[in-house]
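Hey, can you fold this?
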Amino acid sequence: MPLFLNHNSFFKVLIIILLGLFLASCNTTKYVPQGEYLLASEELKVEGKGMKRDVFEPLVRQQPNRTIFGIFRLNLWFYNLSSDKDRRWDRWMRSVGEPPVILDSMSVISSARRMEYYAGQRGYYGSKVNDTIVYSKRKAYVSYDVQLAQPYRITSIDYDVMDKTLDASFIVDPKKRLIKVGNVFDGEVLKGESERIAVEMRERGYYQFYDSYIKYQADTTVGDRGVALKLLLLKEPTGVGSTTRNHRRFYVENLVVNPEYNPEKALSEPSYNTGWDTLNVQGFEMLCQECSEPGGQSYVKPELLTIANRIKTGELYNEQEVNRTYANFANFRLFKSINIRFSEPSADSVLPDSALHPLKGSIILSPFKRQSYTWGGEVSLSGNGLFGMALTGSYQHKNLFRGAEILDVSLTGAFQKVQVSADSAPENSYELGASVSLNIPKFLVPLNLSFYRNVFSPRTQIALSGDYQQRPDYTRALGALTFGYSWRNLGQMTYIYNPVDMNIINMLEITKDFYNSIKDNPYMLNSYQNSFLLGSTFSAIYNNRAVNRHRQYLIRGDVEFKGNLLWLGYKLADAPLIYDPTTKTKSYEVWGTKFAQFAKFDLTFTSLRAINASNSIALRALGGIGIAYGNLTSLPFDKMYYAGGANSLRGWQIRDVGPGAYPGDSVMSNRLADMRLEFNLEYRFNLFWKLEGALFLDAGNIWAINNEDSRSGAVFNFKTFPEQIAIDWGLGLRLNFTVLVIRLDYGMKIHDPAITNKYFVRPNDWFSQGYNSLFIALGYPF
């Protein structure tokens, strides 16, 4: 355990090494040939309105060596550590490093011309780009000054649809078209308009329509930097000389679906593609290898393919329905590859252009392995010697009943050394949890309502879980049952609705010391009671990762209501209130247990923005509040908020922050509350090989909102709120194996609201006991 026992000294040495690397990075021209120059920096400035710097940056042909924090060229430094000899060490240093980027003056000139051309393509004809190179000590500093001209704007739009058989209403529709009078004459917009028209044509049966059939004529002689624009929709070439014909429409004549195709066997076994059985399913034919054998059955039920397939035989080809079919099969999470193909069948006679032309379609699906196993874990260590660890193992079956039903079974075990009170010795805490869930790719509803068929990626989930926790101050058991639905739209929105969300909390034991610490706090005393929770939850999630890899956003809102229908039912039935002598309150009970009544609201915003190929900024902001009322005026402690840990405020151990300025001189279990605010910021950068680094800043806390809470400094107050924000910073190392990320984070406290005699923690104390925490975990923190 040398790493855990001496982690403060370890990180002191690490920081000293990093400082040494920064100083050593000054010698960056070791492998720059005489007479050549290292490309030290590039500066890009844009003068004028209409175009920003980031659209020109990809046009620069040469980029300097990668940097960390914008100054330290770690990869170049590794390369320079190697010698001219061909030893193993030198080869390895050159492989993980990066050779110096030598200035190519012709690339500078070419980059400037590319930017001028690009500005012209975007409508800013006549723009100039001045390039400058400054040489100093075998280094070159390049700058580009983009001077934007006034843009050309569209003054009129005309259309020439040469194929008179086409309905051009959707082409000229001002609500749909992207080109508009008064807009900048932008080549990117013209390209987008061509693609829009081509997509709509392919959704109307014109299978072979491409955006290359759309051309533009621009007359710039109208004066005052205006453009008279004409859109030409050309006919389709016949492939014989220069003759053309009207565009042809296609319909799907037949469709074959193979849900169990194995590409490896197809390559290694010559007879693999022969001898398949064919089943006639509604709207298509299904291939099966073992259906004719005794006891044989298809890999999936035919009904599953019917649910996913949107391509209808006998109907016009529609690219939107093809894309919907792709998405439906992908959302089953059952197939690793999905190929949808169409071809024109050979015919004895040539159909006239005006006739509908047939297409043969095929859907080839290659399934994943049905079963898989995964594991995860986390280790945490604080400066005062407290540590914890957790391990999770899970089993998944992706096709339980041949209908893409996903069965998940998981087990979780955790151990933690906790300090129950400020003057007590660390004691052991154990937790064991298990869960099983079944995810079904359709809505299980009592009524067959037609609109359900148009919902994208519908799913029903049934989950059952249990958790047992034994701490020095209490022991509790938790059981949960959830039944709900999830679905998506064609954009980036996902919705989750659980009409049944039930929890049973059983406080098996509370120690005398813990009870004495909360008996005079009615709010906390109510929280640590047996509770029955029944209600519903709703979540809405926006995620743009699929459409924007460089600027990713995730916004999630969660709403939870518990106990309202139960309370209303008891009220209408005029049921008696049961008096509890322990809490001195009256409430309704279910099977001798009080049921909770509350509302919770949570909102999370996460952003990941790539600065360049090696550097990115990750940000997360979240807030939540729980309001108890009616039957039980305290939130059950399992529904309360906590902070600290590997994925929260990393200068603190889990559940070791707040609430508010609460000093924590009582039991650690009291660090729960009704409200949470948190902000996390990470600068992530590539080091070498699969190693990544991070510099992070965390801020936030939890608060009580009920004035009955008697914990000192725990209740939220707008006047004291700013000084009760806990702040930490730290360094992180991550091994990224793509499918697995191993993370090590070391957080140090900057401001601890529980310490009243000083606002900021001195840097000398960052490595002292009680002012830092070390975490080893899997995956990124957010």
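Oh, and this one too while you're at it.
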Amino acid sequence: MRPARRLSGTAIRASAASQEPVGNRSDFKGCTAIRPLSYKTDGPLAGFAALTGALLLALVLLTPRIALAFETFTIRDIRVEGVQRIDPGTVFSYLPVRVGQVMNDERASESIRALFATGFFKDVRLEVQNDVLVVFVSERPAIASLVVTGAREFSDEVIKKTFADIGLRESLIFDRSVLERAEQELKRQYLSRAKYAVQVTTTVTPLERNRVGLNIKVDEGESARIVAIRFVGNEKFTDAQLLDQIRLSTPTWLTWYTKTDQYAREKLAGDLETLRSFYLDQGYLEFSIDSTQVSITPDKEDVHVTIAVSEGEQYTVAGLDFGGQLLGRENEFAQLLPLRTGDVFSGAKLTSGQNRITQRLGELGYAFANVSVQQSLDRAKREVRFTILVDPGRRVYVRRINISGNGQTRDAVIRRELRQFESAWYDAEKIRLSRERLGRLGYFTDVRIDTEPVPGVSDQIDLAVKVTENASGSLLFGVGTSSTETLILSAAINQQNFLGTGKALDVEVNTSNVNRTISVSYTDPYFTDDGISRSFKAYSRVFNASELDLGDYRWRSNALSLNFAIPYTELDRVSFGLAAENNTLSLGERPPQRYVDFVNGVFDPVTGVQTQEGVGRSSSALLGQFGWTRDSRDNFFTPNRGRLQRGALEFTMPVGELRYYKATYNHQYYYPLNKDYTLAFNADLGYARAFSGSQYPPFKNFYAGGIGSVRGYRPSSLGPGRDPVDNIALGGQTKIVGSIEFILPLAGSGNDRSFRWFLFLDGGNVFPEGKIDTSEFRYSGGIGLTWLSPIGPMKFSLGYPLNGKPQDQVQRVQFQIGTGF
């Protein structure tokens, strides 16, 4: 048997220096480690020989690839030694040599490089035993655990996801270079939050079975604050005026929330673009930003920002011309431009005009229209002339509409809301309207409609409707409480998109000290193909007024109703229907006088003669119902723009004991200040009276106070009318209530609108039949939070009465489950 031998007397070997350095070299990456040569020389050539030997040794150590001279051989077999987790077959698959091939220096080096490049091994060595190629490997350790401590700015889940994207996570092979990249990325994330003093320390702990544990400790330090923002070169506008245009700022009482005093390169870049837009809107066409300088104090806590600008001169518009393919619509396009000859130039107006023309061309079927602008400057006169070049491209039509993302909702439910049809000319306005109609359904949290070109065809496109479904149904069983009711036992099935058909089914059983309800309702929004809806509703309700300190009585109401609604525009619907209702009053020992009068009649206190007939404890009515709704909101749950208007009229037919009519009107208006902040206005009006010679049922009164009305006051506690016996609120037959909300995103939520907070100002009251007294209006202000929770939209408020009277009942913390105001 021939003895085992190494190639050329030594093993061909490569080590992962980044993991376990060999000698003083940083990385071999396929280099061959050889046995040092020795030289022995006497006489006058000894010094020369020593120098030659040293140079040769240096050459050996520094040359990245050494060709070794050894006896070549034919590989009879290949054996792998040292593998633990990795299957030997994996090593064979990466080896560039096979049994039967001739092994030489080049193939040996190539084999080492191939195995080392996999990243699986920290050491690779080749030996020969009786023409058997033996591959000795030492595996890199696996990551057994990854722990992040000290991080507050980012959650552990966010950090670990960032690491995983880089290639650092549990069960993967540990690579120190990957760890270093992960550390640098984490520092970069902290730098974007103005935490320049952040320190990241990693401890690598060896574990049994060739594993390691990673502990990444983060010392965030304090965020660097912008203590000064200076402008250089500005003469037309003051520093204060320019500071009003940008978002970065020095510390104020609100920057703890807005974070605008924390410097970040991305924030500054955005502000510089805002600054350019501001100057362009004022006519300064040649404005430029010469330089920006950001300096940080040695303690990395204070930031100074200096922006140097060149303003140039202000230009007016000398003329507006059109060119290109105008389709005979030059006059129409000119009307779409908000910029006119003689105006001071405004970049925003010019861009708006371009967008309007592009949108108009899109409505005509030109999906890929291009509207560009050429300008000609007259610096002597400080005038600019524009030529609007219109290139409509080819008119296209929609070949196919593809729907995705609707795991539950049927395609037909989505398609019936679309106003853009297949095989019809492309219409940008109809596509926008389709997107808004789908958003108002309440079935989806996100709706996108993208255009996709048809390969090989220039006059056709496909539309991709992509929806993200919302949990539109719920099955609830619960025991709870609220700010107005002590104990609530409830069970409810609520499905606004029943079985994906778009039909709504609600079954509710609710019991508490105040309200007890059994209710079933069913709505088919497309009872007919053209969008006429039909609704059935049956309910039984019991209201215990004594629990709200509104009097010692109980009111039970049972009803059955049928309604139809007809759409007559894209935004408007009218409804009509009938409801049969039966009401029963149970009076306690000390009921409010108004209920005693309603049941027994009104008697003259002097003569004792009955002046008005009583209705009795039980009364019934057949109600006619008419309504109108106009909804242009951009979202059902979290609107940012648009209006919701609802008007309703309810009146009794000449059947039954009750004779009254009741009209209500509600108007909600959402005005976006920008993409983050919204102003919301709400007006809620009501007017009700009895028909001549009849009593108005007191249980049909309007009430004010509480969330959804004037917050900060106990629900249903407001009103100048008080019971003469119990001094409790009587409600009223006229209601005037208004609210203003300033809605803001929750800090750190990004584009997530499921959490938002708001500041509010409420005002209004209810009044008995007679004159409205504005001096009796109650006002309140406060702060609140809305949450699009899994069980439905929730609203919490903390309200403070602004002009409360001694008889008013205050309740500062209130909440509700529902939508809108």
